[in-house]
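Q: What does the assembly look like in three dimensions?
Context provided by user:
Components: two
Sequences:
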Amino acid sequence: NAGVTQTPKFQVLKTGQSMTLQCAQDMNHNSMYWYRQDPGMGLRLIYYSASEGTTDKGEVPNGYNVSRLNKREFSLRLESAAPSQTSVYFCASRDGTGELFFGEGSRLTVL
Amino acid sequence: GEDVEQSLFLSVREGDSSVINCTYTDSSSTYLYWYKQEPGAGLQLLTYIFSNMDMKQDQRLTVLLNKKDKHLSLRIADTQTGDSAIYFCAEDLSGGYNKLIFGAGTRLAVHP
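A: Here is the predicted structure of the complete assembly.
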């Protein structure tokens, strides 16, 4: 039972490079989320998708784009990475009771 | 506005009770959550409380909600070293399970 799977787990980028973080869930959840976690700031919502085919901005969407490819997959793209985007990124999906299920996180460093 | 606040650190002795506090600002929140994060891992749901409840108890965990003051607390009885982690308070703004706002997290350190 995989739950929420994120790839890659670690990534180092140079300023200006692009990359996509992949997320997939096998629990048939409608809602999926991307958060970033920074020291002393908790988790901040970047984007979310309430259902397949819809996406909405969260608290800190600037510099990111998302794609809800299908019900299982929700990807996060950085078009032109900046040092301020150095963070740990978490994907999550949510079940009908409201509980969030998190992936293990992707640690991104932008030099 | 959307803001969830927690103190950043708490240190307790093994066997004592821990109380982690949280304040939130949006009175429309319908559910309030406590998540636990162990080192190198994602967050896991610990417990939650519906906004029309004052208290919820689950084994060693007690959640108290003061809706008038917008104050939420998590009490861990008989704290163990395995309880060392970061604890996040979160509020559900939408009521439709679409948007969860987290606090900065309280790092709980349990010492002998």
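Follow-up: DSSP finds no helices and eleven strands in chain A.
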